[in-house]
Amino acid sequence: MKRCEWANSDEAYIVYHDTEWGMPVHDDRKLFEMLILEGAQAGLSWLTVLKRRENYRKAYGNFDPAKIAQWDQEKIASLLQNPGIIRNRLKVEAARSNARAFLHTAGEYGSFDTFIWSFVGGRPIRNSWKDIKEIPATTPESDRMSKDLKKRGFRFVGPTICYAFMQAVGMVNDHVVDCFRYKILLKNMI
Fold this sequence. Notes:
Layout: H1 11-19, H2 28-40, H3 46-50, H4 53-59, H5 65-68, H6 73-79, H7 89-109, H8 112-117, E1 125-126, H9 140-151, H10 159-168, E2 172-173, H11 180-188
Parallel strand pairs: 1-2
Helix pairs in contact: 2-7, 2-10, 9-10
């Protein structure tokens, strides 16, 4: 079975690639989870975060933004002692500020889904890359998303992180054309 080149190095990557990556997500909580995890990845490999995802789900209350928005300094201090997550103070504190910005944005637009998908006109961008080397690190859409998110108080949302987020939640189909998931996702793009 032909997969995107990056997905063949580890079983966790294979499962993630084959079942999640690039599938359009419209659930606010899942969108929040992926935004937080992509930010946690900054400076690290996605595999580092992916292997800690279940620990994050436990530590972050299944990514409930209302709960995370209420974290106090004591809660942040306890998270910084948790070896199951990436213990970077700036990233942990960013989860709290991002939860607050997320709730405000979702309230303003009716849902975060409505807001975030507006950067691609509500429909996934259908790319047709033949080689992984063709896939950009950023796009004009991820640049605009990053700028808007930062203006709203989000942190760890640079253009590269935003593009990785867009790939993860199916706002773009960046599977290479000979990957078995490429055609599957074309059928699922709404």
